[in-house]
From TrEMBL:
<dbReference type="InterPro" id="IPR006638">
    <property type="entry name" value="Elp3/MiaA/NifB-like_rSAM"/>
</dbReference>
<comment type="pathway">
    <text>Cofactor biosynthesis; molybdopterin biosynthesis.</text>
</comment>
<dbReference type="GO" id="GO:0061798">
    <property type="term" value="F:GTP 3',8'-cyclase activity"/>
</dbReference>
<comment type="function">
    <text>Catalyzes the cyclization of GTP to (8S)-3',8-cyclo-7,8-dihydroguanosine 5'-triphosphate.</text>
</comment>
<dbReference type="InterPro" id="IPR007197">
    <property type="entry name" value="rSAM"/>
</dbReference>
<dbReference type="InterPro" id="IPR013785">
    <property type="entry name" value="Aldolase_TIM"/>
</dbReference>
<feature type="binding site">
    <location>
        <position position="25"/>
    </location>
    <ligand>
        <name>[4Fe-4S] cluster 1</name>
    </ligand>
</feature>
<feature type="binding site">
    <location>
        <position position="72"/>
    </location>
    <ligand>
        <name>GTP</name>
    </ligand>
</feature>
<feature type="binding site">
    <location>
        <position position="31"/>
    </location>
    <ligand>
        <name>S-adenosyl-L-methionine</name>
    </ligand>
</feature>
<dbReference type="GO" id="GO:0006777">
    <property type="term" value="P:Mo-molybdopterin cofactor biosynthetic process"/>
</dbReference>
<keyword id="KW-0456">Lyase</keyword>
<feature type="binding site">
    <location>
        <position position="198"/>
    </location>
    <ligand>
        <name>S-adenosyl-L-methionine</name>
    </ligand>
</feature>
<keyword id="KW-0342">GTP-binding</keyword>
<feature type="binding site">
    <location>
        <begin position="267"/>
        <end position="269"/>
    </location>
    <ligand>
        <name>GTP</name>
    </ligand>
</feature>
<keyword id="KW-0408">Iron</keyword>
<keyword id="KW-0004">4Fe-4S</keyword>
<feature type="domain" description="Radical SAM core">
    <location>
        <begin position="9"/>
        <end position="231"/>
    </location>
</feature>
C-alpha cells in the first residue's frame, strides 16, 4: 500500500515516535525515579521483557509507513542498553525516517558519542539540572558530579552531534540554577530547554505548587537578557523558543503544565516492554510485544496501530488538575521515557 494511502487511514497526524529502550537508570533523579522507591529491591524488567532490536525495528518501520519522520530513543537511561549503536544504525536505514535523536543523562557519552554519530544519530538532548555539584548530586540521587555530564556534552560536540540541554525546574529544588544554567549555555552556544516539572507516573509526589511555570522562568531570564521570540520550525513543535538578541543561540521552554499543547500532539510512545502509549499520561498501554511474539503478521500489527491511533482522544495536559495528578493511573517516566 502507498505511504500516502496508509497515512490517510489515520484521523490524527502521527509524526514522531519516542522509544524507551530500557527501564533501568544509573541515576535516581528525585523528580523521576526517587531513590526510596527505586531502591535495590525494585523489580526492573527482566531482559526477556524488553523488546529486542528486531522487534523495535519492525515497529519503527511500520510507524514510519504511517507518517513518523522522527524517532527519539530514551529510557530509563538509553545508553545503558547494550549495543545501542547497532539499533541506531538499523533505524537510520529506514527509508522516510529523517531524524534520529537521543535523550540521555550524558554519563556514557564519552564512550559512545562517536560510535552513535557514525551509526546515524543526529541529535542528542542531555539532561543537566544544576551546575552546583552538591545540588546536582542531590538531584541525581547518586552524587554524580557536574563535570561528568560536562564531559558527556563535550564528547557529543566533538562527535558533531547537535546538542540541546534539558533542565527540569522544580520549585524549592533548583530555581536558583535558572540564571547560572542560562549563562553557561549561552556562553557555550548550547540551546537550553527549561522543562516544567510534570506529574509523570505516581511516585514523584508531584504538586501543582512545585511547578515553576514558563512565564515565571521567562520573567527571571528577562531581568538578565534581551529575548526575541522565534517562530516554530514545524507544526506541533513542543518547545516555545526565544533567541538571545544579537546571537544565534536559542533558549526554549517546554510548558507542558502551564500551556498545554494536546491539540497539536503528534507523538506516540513505545515503552521498553513493547506497549504503545498514545499519551505520556495515559496509564493504558497497548501491548505490541505479545502480538508480535504470538506471530501476528506485519499487516495485522499495522492495522492494530492504525486502530489504536485512530481511537486516540488524549488531552491530559488540557485537563490536568491536582486531582487528576493524584488519581489517574499513569505510566512511570522510566518505562516510557520523557
Ligand atoms: N535518562 C535520560 C535523561 O535523563 O535524559 C532519558 C530519560 S528521562 C525520563 C527524559 C527526560 O525527562 C529528561 O530530560 C528528564 O529530565 C525529564 N523528566 C524526568 N522526570 C520529569 C518530570 N517529573 N517532569 C519533567 N521532566 C521530567
Ligand atoms: Fe534516569 Fe533520566 Fe529519570 Fe534521571 S531523568 S532518573 S537520568 S531516566
Ligand atoms: Fe500529547 Fe498527552 Fe502531552 Fe497532551 S498530555 S501533549 S496528548 S502527550
Amino acid at each position: 500500500m502507498g505511504k500516502t494511502m496508509i497515512k490517510d487511514q489515520l484521523n490524527r497526524p502521527l509524526r514522531d515516535l519516542r522509544i524507551s529502550v530500557i527501564d533501568r537508570c544509573n541515576f535516581r533523579c528525585t523528580y523521576c525515579m526517587p531513590a526510596d522507591i527505586f531502591g535495590p529491591d525494585f523489580a526492573f524488567l527482566p531482559k526477556s521483557e524488553l523488546l529486542t532490536y528486531e522487534e523495535i525495528e519492525l515497529l519503527a518501520r511500520i510507524f514510519v509507513d504511517l507518517g513518523v519522520e522522527k524517532i527519539r530513543l530514551t529510557g530509563g537511561e538509553p545508553l545503558l542498553r547494550k549495543d545501542l549503536p547497532i539499533l541506531v544504525k538499523n533505524l537510520s536505514a529506514i527509508e522516510g525516517l529523517n531524524d534520529i535523536a537521543l535523550t540521555t543523562n550524558g554519563v556514557l557519552l564519552p564512550k559512545l558519542a562517536g560510535e552513535l554519530k557514525e551509526a546515524g544519530l543526529l541529535r542528542v538532548n542531555i539532561s543537566l539540572d544544576s551546575l552546583n555539584d552538591e545540588l546536582f548530586g542531590k538531584i541525581n540521587g547518586r552524587n554524580v558530579k557536574v563535570q561528568t555530564v560536562l564531559n558527556g556534552i563535550k564528547a557529543a560536540q566533538q562527535a558533531e552531534l547537535f546538542v540541546k540541554i534539558n533542565m527540569v525546574v522544580k520549585k524549592g529544588l533548583n530555581e536558583s540554577e535558572i540564571v547560572p544554567m542560562a549563562k553557561f549555555c549561552k556562553e557555550q552556544g548550547l540551546q537550553l530547554r527549561f522543562i516544567e516539572y510534570m506529574d509523570v507516573g505516581s511516585t514523584n509526589g508531584w504538586k501543582m505548587d512545585d511547578v515553576i511555570t514558563k512565564k515565571e522562568i521567562y520573567e527571571i531570564l528577562k531581568e538578565h537578557y534581551l529575548l526575541e521570540p522565534v517562530d516554530p520550525d514545524y507544526f506541533g513543535e513542543v518547545a516555545k523558543r526565544y533567541r538571545y538578541k544579537g546571537t544565534q543561540t536559542d533558549v526554549g521552554f517546554i510548558p507542558s503544565v502551564s500551556e498545554s499543547f494536546c491539540s497539536s500532539c503528534t507523538r506516540a510512545r513505545l515503552s521498553a516492554n513493547g506497549q504503545i502509549f498514545t499519551c505520556l499520561f495515559n496509564g493504558n498501554g497497548h501491548d505490541m510485544k505479545e502480538l508480535m511474539r504470538n506471530g501476528a503478521s506485519e499487516e495485522e500489527i499495522r492495522q492494530r496501530i492504525i486502530d489504536i491511533w485512530s481511537g486516540r482522544k488524549d488531552r491530559y495536559s488540557d485537563e490536568r488538575t491536582e486531582e487528576t495528578a493524584r488519581y489517574r493511573k499513569k505510566i512511570e517516566m522510566s518505562y516510557i521515557g520523557g
